[in-house]
Structures are given as C-alpha cells and as structure tokens.
Design goal:
442 residues; alpha/beta; FAD/NAD(P)-binding domain; eight-stranded mixed beta sheet; 18 strands; 35% helix; globular; binds flavin-adenine dinucleotide; oxidoreductase
Length: 442
C-alpha cells in the first residue's frame, strides 16, 4: 500500500498553510479548501517569534515575506509613560539566543508567502470553497477515508482531514456533533493600522521608521505597537474590557470612544491615537480545552485556533499554529510512516506532542493579561517594583513581561518543532515495548 496520503486541509490560514507545506515536503498529495474568495487583508500586524521563524527559514519562506521589520528594542511603559522594562539589541539577542529572528509583518504578507511556497510544492489551494459538512466513515476497511462537502455541493475525499478553520471552526462542531461556539474572554481589541504618510510629527515618524516593540500597561487594559512593511506602517492594538453585545464579534469602532478610554495615558500614545482615522473592534474569544483533537476513525485532526485559540497577549496564536503544522507534517514523514494504517498511531503521537503545549500557551496568555492589566494599588506597585529592580540589568527569574522573561521566553521561542519528531523517532523504535505502547494509546 502506498504511504502517500491524500490530505485535505480546511482553511488557508496560517496553521493550514504551514501544515500544507510540511505535508507536501513529506511527500503527500495536499489540497487546501479556503472559504474566502481571495486572501485579502484580514487582520493586521503579526509578530513572528523564533519558534515559527526558524520553520519559515527552513522552508525558504521567511525571506520572501514582504517588508519584515525586526524590532531592535522591546520596551514596557506604564500607562503614564514611565519605562518599566527595556531591552536594547532585541533583534540581535533573539538571533543569538534562538538562532532565528523575531520579526513583525502584515498577516496577509505572511499568508501570501506561505501560499506561494505551498503551490510551488504542488499543493492545490482552492478558494471560495466553504466546507459545510464532513463525513468520517467513507469506504470499507479498517482505516476509513473521510469526505467534506462545500457550500457549492462539491465533495472532496481524503485519507486525512486537517481542520485548520480557525476560531469559528465548522470542523470542530461537526466533529463534536454539536454547535460549539467560542467563548468571550472579557476583552476586546481595537485594531489600528497607521500609514507613515498619515503622521507628520517627527518624533512619531521616527517611532514608526525605527522598529521597536512597545507596550503600555494600565488598569484593565494594555497596548502593543510595532512597525511593519519596512517601517511604512504602524500596527497598534489596544486591549480593553469587552463591551460588545454577545452576538457581535467584529465591528467598526468609534474613534471618540477609543480615545476617551486612553485619556490621561502617556502623551506619546494619545498623540498617536489622534492620527487614527479608522479602528476595528474585535471581540477576543477563546474556547474550552478539548478532550481530543483527533477523531475515533483517525482521519481528522484539528490544528491552530480551531483547537487552542488564545488571547493574543504573547503573540503565539499564529506562531504555535505554525508549530502544529510543522510537527504534524514531520510525523507523517518519519521512516515509520509506511501506510495509512499508521494514521491512528501517528495522530496520537501528534496529539501527545502538541496538545499540552498549545493549551499551556493559551493558559499563559491569561497570566500575561493579569500582569499587564493591574489597576493602581498595592499589587501593581509590587509588580512595578519587580520590573524596576531589574531595569538596565540582566533579567533573572520570573518577570512580569513574558516577552523578555528568562523563564517563559526560552520555553516559547526556544521550541524547535523539527526536533520533536526526531525525539519521537527515538521513542518509536521502542514502540513494540508494551509500556510505551500503552502510554500512546492513553
Ligand atoms: C488582535 C489580534 C492580534 C494577534 N496578533 C498575533 C501575533 O502577533 N502573533 C501571533 O502568532 N498570533 C496573533 N494573533 C492570533 C492569530 O491571528 C491566530 O491565532 C491565527 O491566525 C490562527 O491561525 P489559524 O490558521 O488556526 O486560523 P485563521 O488564521 O483564522 O485561519 C482560518 C482559515 O480558515 C478559513 N475558514 C474558516 N471556516 C472555513 C470553512 N468552513 N471552510 C473553508 N475555510 C474556512 C478562514 O477563512 C481562514 O482563512 C492575533 C489575534 C488577534 C485577534
């Protein structure tokens, strides 16, 4: 039996495209079904961290992303503008520590670079193909095939379906057999993209042109800002308590309301907000942890936001989704992957490797919220004292900003998705061992 699989990926977002590239590199036939008519500018900026850029480099995608900005500094201010933490040479430090860059880009520029690579590798990307139903019991035999039906009543069949359809995943609901909607986190994001040409003030222009990551931490809210498209655009995200009705996930925001929330904050930030002529308001959602990311028939696996969405407070949603795709594709290429009958074991390994990490990162994003959103008071004073004791010094131990924290940062950025399957390769040689077998069956 051929070891090549027909793989169908639902969603050409970052997890789906990453999975498509690694699965194609592993020798499989891959089709991606995407509901959108075109890959347009959905969302705005994305911070890419070394755990994902090392994969993008390996695939030859990194250098093809338009207008990447590598921030040279990372600074946390309190909401009045006092520096709480600052790292110079942030770009060089990341490259030195993790052998891969920390970079900022526009989401669509990354998505288009991934599509180009996927298509180069023979992946078929089908646009305007919204999946509305799935069937996991197609054909005869022990290892069943699966099929999907699109809105246009087209049916596709495959040995393996990868559900990469994001936060509002249809795949997840069909798999669970019930409508399963995302849950509010209690926060929303005002998303802003400023063009350099909109800004006249020389100090603010310099801020956009000289890439640095900036955070402002204040009561119940925080702000993150960074340059993209070669310093010609500035991405600003304002994170505040959610006041949108339950039924509204995204809407155009009101500029006056946005500015009012940040009244009295650092004048640099409020001046910047004066230049904004359009803002989008996005409800930030998450989901309960799932019992399993794979189905009983072992012909469906979920990746990315469909199974581990998180708050964007550590910029790991896309980065960890790219990790998912890479690990899955690599596991399917291991020397032990000889036929589709090995899918149950391979998917169990994937889940074993990825579920704990994806969910742990999601939980960590809520801890970052707590540390960035403190109201004025004794807890905030203790946090600021912890920040300020280490200002200008080498950081030691747990730190309230996980972006430079010497404990959390290596866990996030030091992860090498490529090494996971090698580690498992070592384990798989022991697979006949009854105890190891039992662990992976659990
Ligand atoms: C304000 C904000 C800022 C963020 N910043 C960062 C950041 O800096 N760094 C970072 O790593 N992450 C960031 N994230 C998170 C990141 O955007 C997501 O985690 C990431 O996009 C998830 O990738 P995905 O492929 O799983 O889902 P998506 O990127 O959402 O892709 C899902 C795809 O599936 C398609 N689709 C959906 N339903 C169907 C269907 N039925 N049939 C076919 N196709 C379908 C969609 O059109 C879409 O293209 C941020 C999120 C927000 C809200």
């Amino acid at each position: 039996m051929s070891k090549e699989l027909d793989i169908l990926i639902i969603g050409a977002g970052l997890s789906g495209l990453a999975a498509s590239i690694q699965c194609a590199l592993s020798g499989h036939r891959v089709t991606v079904l995407e509901s959108a008519k075109e890959l347009a500018e959905i969302g705005a900026g994305l911070q890419l961290t070394p755990n994902a850029t090392r994969l993008l480099l390996k695939w030859g995608v990194y250098d093809t992303i338009r207008g990447l900005c590598e921030p040279t500094t990372c600074t946390v201010y309190n909401y009045k503008g006092r520096i709480l933490a600052h790292e110079d040479h942030f770009d060089k430090n990341n490259r030195r520590k993790y052998n891969a860059p920390f970079s900022d880009c526009h989401r669509v520029d990354l998505q288009q670079a991934l599509v180009r690579k996927a298509e180069e590798l023979g992946v078929k990307v089908v646009l305007s193909a919204r999946v509305v139903d799935l069937d996991f019991d197609v054909g005869e035999g022990q290892q069943k095939r699966a099929s999907v039906t699109t809105e246009a009543w087209k049916t596709y069949e495959a040995d393996l379906i990868i559900g990469a359809d994001g936060l509002w995943s249809t795949t997840r609901s069909v798999f669970l057999g019930r409508k399963d909607s995302p849950l509010p986190t209690g926060d929303l994001a005002f998303r802003i993209v400023l063009q350099l040409k909109q800004i006249e003030d020389p100090k603010l222009r310099k801020m956009v042109q000289e890439p640095g990551v900036r955070f402002w931490a204040g009561p119940d809210s925080h702000v993150v800002a960074y340059s993209m498209r070669g310093g010609t655009m500035y991405n600003v995200v304002l994170l505040v308590p959610d006041d949108l009705p339950d039924s509204v996930a995204r809407v155009e925001g009101n500029l006056e309301e946005m500015r009012a929330w940040f009244e009295g904050w650092d004048p640099v930030l409020t001046q910047l907000l004066e230049h904004v002529d359009r803002v989008d308001k996005w409800k930030l959602m998450h989901r309960a942890e799932m019992e399993s990311w794979i189905n009983d028939q072992s012909n469906l696996v979920l990746v990315g936001d469909s199974c581990h969405p998180m708050l964007p407070y550590l910029a790991q949603g896309a980065n960890s989704s790219i990790e998912d795709g890479a690990v899955l594709g690599l596991l399917l290429a291991l020397p032990h992957f000889k036929s589709k009958h090995q899918l149950p074991k391979t998917l169990r390994l994937f889940q074993k490797l990825r579920k704990a990490r994806g969910e742990a990162i999601a939980r960590e994003t809520f801890k970052q919220r707590k540390d960035f959103h403190m109201r004025d008071g004794s807890e905030q004073e203790a946090r600021d004292a912890l920040f300020l004791r280490q200002l200008g010094k080498e950081l030691v131990g747990a730190f309230p900003s996980r972006w430079t924290c010497p404990v959390v940062q290596p866990w996030l950025y030091g992860y090498d998705a490529e090494k996971e399957p090698y580690e498992i390769g070592r384990l798989s040689r022991m697979f006949h061992h009854p105890v190891i077998n039992m662990i992976f069956r659990s």
